Amino acid sequence: PAAGEVVLDVQAIRKTFGGLVAVNDISFQTRAGQIVGLIGPNGAGKSTTFNLVTGVLSLSGGAVQFRGQPIGGLSARQIAERGVSRTFQHVKMVADMTVLENVALGAHLRGGKGAVSAMLRLDRNEERALFKEAERQLQRVGMGAYLHETAGNLAMGQQRLLEIARALCADPALLLLDEPAAGLRHKEKEALGQVLRTLRDEGMSILLVEHDMGLVMDICDHIVVMEFGTHLMEGSPADVQRSDKVRAAYLGT
Ligand code: ADP
Ligand code: MG
């Protein structure tokens, strides 16, 4: 997508669980070359919104468009295949495989094959292409020096970068990150922020759910604030920081 093009268009989405309205009339957009933060107190509906966009949950109302096409009724796999990639809050990797093998395996499963054993049935050329792509994405996130390291030996910050490399395989236009800074040390957060900025500058559209306000304020171009399932406000980091509504939502005053 061209810089500034709307990549994700969330239109008045809604999700109810029985009588509970978890997400109520939420609308926002993300653009190419932009990091959008989705923040709000616990229970605000951030994860549910994330799951609605990625097709993990079905919409109770509203619509979601990705690059101008409706994706609201599609399965999680179909949405991923169109170019929406996500990381999960907990890193899933095989501790005794190398970093490169983990990313290649993840890319392969993402490609819809569905079983680890299927990787063993790849022909030589398919396997080579898969490993080449994994290596390219690991280099992109600054993990080029760790390709043959055993994944179980990685520090937490490096594990998160491995996750991001895996999500980048197959060149998504939209990357959704679920609390990528959780449990990271200060230096690791800085390295993560730098990687996300670089991806953004290369034209990636990024939607970031994150509790670490330092990182959010530092790297987001635009922030959407949710409270009790509703859209509380949105604006620049400066707008959000000076908002009395946001302060009240967090402090409960
Ligand atoms: P956040 O990620 O902002 O902390 P969530 O999206 O996880 O918030 O949750 C929003 C609300 O929806 C909460 O009240 C939560 O308890 C509820 N909720 C989330 N998922 C489910 C579910 N699968 N079934 C019932 N209620 C849920
Ligand atoms: Mg959550």
From TrEMBL:
Residues represented out of the complete protein: 358 to 610 of 612
UniProt-annotated location(s): Cell membrane
Top-level taxon of origin: Bacteria
Official protein name in the record: Branched-chain amino acid transport system permease protein
The ABC transporter domain, residue ranges: 8-253
